[in-house]
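Convert to structure. Protein one:
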Amino acid sequence: MSPFAWDGLKRALNAREVRIESLERLLSLATTTSLEPEPIPIHLKVVLIGDRFLYYLLKAYDPEFGLLFKVTADFNEDMQRSPDSDLLYARLVGTLQQREQLRPIDRAGVARIIEAEARRAEDGEKVSLHVGRLVDLIREADNAATRAGAAVVGADHVQAALDAQDRRLGQIRERLHEAILRGTLLIDTKGAQLGQVNGLSVLQLGDYTFGAPTRISATARLGSGDVIDIEREVDQGGEIHSKGVLILSSYLASRYARHQPLSLDASLVFEQTYGQVEGDSASVAELCALLSAIGDVPIRQTMAVTGSVNLHGQIQAIGGVNQKVEGFFDVCRARGLDGSHGVVIPAANERDLMLRADVGRRRGGWPVPRLRGAARRRGDGDPHGNPRRAPGCQRPVPGRHGERPGAAPSDRMDRSAAALRHAAAREPQRSLGEFPRAPRPGCSADRC
């Protein structure tokens, strides 16, 4: 990399000639003059290719950039999927195969390549146009067919190439899963816990991305209505993550303390994270952990949750949904699947699901559009939101504190928050040990 190449290119384009000069003469550091070759006239057009970020930086900070490069073309990195576009993409695959003089690819192999490139685009309705990675995949699939002694590249050879890519780059993912299975990283995949939820994160290492579960914990206590984000307090949380926590705390205030302050404080933390935490895709998981701690509702650890939430409780789309689902599935499969494991995802991400074949055969994701749907999935009812039942019992188990049988977790959270407000209004000076429990039906607020 030459630090003076850009200035030299601009001088050549402005003067329409190439002048050979020493660096000392260029920087006016030379005190003597010597013979110099004559400048070489040029007549050419220069095309610069780069990413958008560099273009916007040059446009903003270099006034000569717009004068020298007047024509700009922004190319798409993906295209919309349709029967016609899939046919055109298949022709592109055939053209690249013939140009590289590789084995022919059958219909199933081309279909698997298109599926792999659609997954790279992270959109079930689009396909990636990154030709360099496409050529690499075709070459590796051809190599797999060579080792198998096949005359035609099929879907199995393409899948073998994809598996080989994951295996070469997956050492950190394997070490992380090993730490979870050994109990070094604490992740529960059975039972139920208060104020604890399995969040999902995506780690990107160059061109390789993978998902892994992360424990998110919350506690609640008497206070003034503050939500403490421990990552933010220790400067470990990024700006977008801090924004997500502020949004969910504002949603809590508007939901449960619209007419009277909610006299409690809460704390949130990503357990066993020792680096930067960025992004708002865990805000739904954080909110579920908070509601669990406030409403005394256990959360099923057989499920993980991902999604972003807005001020009105609507769950918004996130990125890396396939890697997140597969990361949690790998951990659950290693410990043993029993049919109760799954992942709660935003409804807007349902069209982006392009899971591996071993994951796609199972119904492991529940799309939800609003927070109340996520709370029902994460609560102690069954995965379909039905009331919890004791083993061998045909009637719903009565809820705590006299609540109606089969009450949804979100309803119990509403009543718990109302009880806290009522108690705080009656005796605002009470200490934590003296805080009264919610009254049962037929009993007074002071005595039961």
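Protein two, convert as well:
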Amino acid sequence: MSISANPCPAIDDHQHLNGGFVSQPPANLLAQCGVNRVRDEQFHGQQQHSEFGVVEVGALIGLSSVVLVMIIAQPRIFMIMSRDGLLPKVFNRVHPRYRTPHLNTIITGVGIAILAAVFPLDLLANLTSMGTLIAFVAVCAGVLILRYTAPDLPRSFRVPGAWFVCSAGVLSCCALLYTMEWFNWLLMIGWTVIGLAIYFGYGMRHSRLRRSSALKAVNE
């Protein structure tokens, strides 16, 4: 998720992103195997305190890096949405010197700080996980839909075995979503309603894709 949200700074995003997507799962698997080994030894009374400290430090560094990357990614997501007309043009502004979405970065940082100060950590973690799973469901389903509705669309990377991979992705994410508590679902539904209100109240009327489609239909 962090890789897919940060394609803008890449020199050759098609090549580098594909390499990142391919190399990330094996790296995560090796890291998880190491953590599970330490936990298993700790459970059986064979764990050394120094090794457990290394795992704690690694977990702290890993979580901090993920949070940092996602904070960097969210302002750029706002910028791309604004470029497509789904958000007001103010979100598309960049710093005249550093060429970064500075206003979006400030908005994201203040918003995250307020959420972290008001809501408990476990609730935010569950909502973040739900949002990620829902995004994965949308992406997997979108790949299958585009394979049918736009088969000739230029693609720099094609998912091998898309029908199996995407179907398995949708089913596995839905299975994990099913285990979430009802209170988290209520908050997610409320958050989704706010997003839909923004889309139907502003984004749908200003969408560049909708305008280009309407203009094409008129010309035809």
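The helical segments are 13-43, 49-83, 102-118, 121-149, 162-178, 182-206, 208-219. The chain is about 75% helix and 0% strand.
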